[in-house]
């Protein structure tokens, strides 16, 4: 597959990526090499990755516990301390091998350690391949609030090897699929339509769908690297989705949702908002709702869940001057950003979701 040129860094696929990493290691005089993994990727992905590296550098592995609950500043502090103890300097290279938590956190660690060291992303989950590792966003959660602390800083390259997906459970695959569905809804109607009947998808050729998803996100980010305008389109489904994800994360009596599970709900809810702002028609909304519900298990919302979810919306990063702003779809394949929505309509969206 042909590499994709992002904003000052390349995205390589499969074998070409390993060739690129080894060439990068050869051409740059790094002092040492650190690979950040979580407990899952240390066990399942590192044994595949290490043998393909061609370098005489001493390689140090830094592992932290897997899970969104560990994507916080405390984990960063621990990793910064380990880097310091192991002699990391400005000429060190960090490779982040893992899912979205690893690439988000590892990119933030690298971007801030000694005011920034080089890093490379090697995403190992579908979600990280099509979303988290592409675009230069790095960061951590603040308590239960998603991605409140972070920077936009690009890696030296991204390596997408779809062999790692063989280690990913089905629920994690569905989580990543939500971002692919989003890319179709906001940018490419034909791409969205390929997912209307999952039985017809040839998963042996899934690489092509992943490639297109990365291409869509990259095309949007290239137009607006720092999210001042059209990049906000990528937040479709995320304004409510992140609030739902945060609420379920902080409540012990709720089962923690995967990112894509929350975003799937968010896309249905925000499609309802699009419908009632006359941006899509009822046929389009029905297609979106039924297609997403066919893939994802319904999330149960009690009456007393909705108010605290709405209260979390004020922390969404797109908000300006205290106003909650949505990126809504204007027909399938198009987007309209900076849309204000009153709480009464959001409540109706939740009622419709439950119906």
Automatic annotation (TrEMBL):
CDD domains in UniProt: DHQS
Cofactor(s) annotated in UniProt: NAD(+); Zn(2+); Co(2+)
EC number: 4.2.3.4
Gene Ontology, cellular component aspect: cytoplasm
UniProt key word Nucleotide-binding: yes
Entries under InterPro entries matching the protein: Dehydroquinate_synthase (IPR050071), DHQ_synth_AroB (IPR016037), DHQ_synth_fam (IPR030963), DHQS/DOIS_N (IPR030960), DHQS_C (IPR056179)
Enzyme class, broadest EC rank: lyase
Gene Ontology biological-process entries: aromatic amino acid family biosynthetic process; chorismate biosynthetic process
GO molecular function: 3-dehydroquinate synthase activity; metal ion binding; nucleotide binding
Stretches assigned to the 3-dehydroquinate synthase C-terminal domain: 176-319
Domain 3-dehydroquinate synthase N-terminal: 64-174
Keywords assigned: Cobalt, Lyase, Metal-binding, NAD, Nucleotide-binding, Zinc
PANTHER family xref list: 3-DEHYDROQUINATE SYNTHASE
Function comment: Catalyzes the conversion of 3-deoxy-D-arabino-heptulosonate 7-phosphate (DAHP) to dehydroquinate (DHQ).
Protein name: 3-dehydroquinate synthase
The species this protein was found in: Flavobacterium bomense
Lineage of source species: Bacteria, Pseudomonadati, Bacteroidota, Flavobacteriia, Flavobacteriales
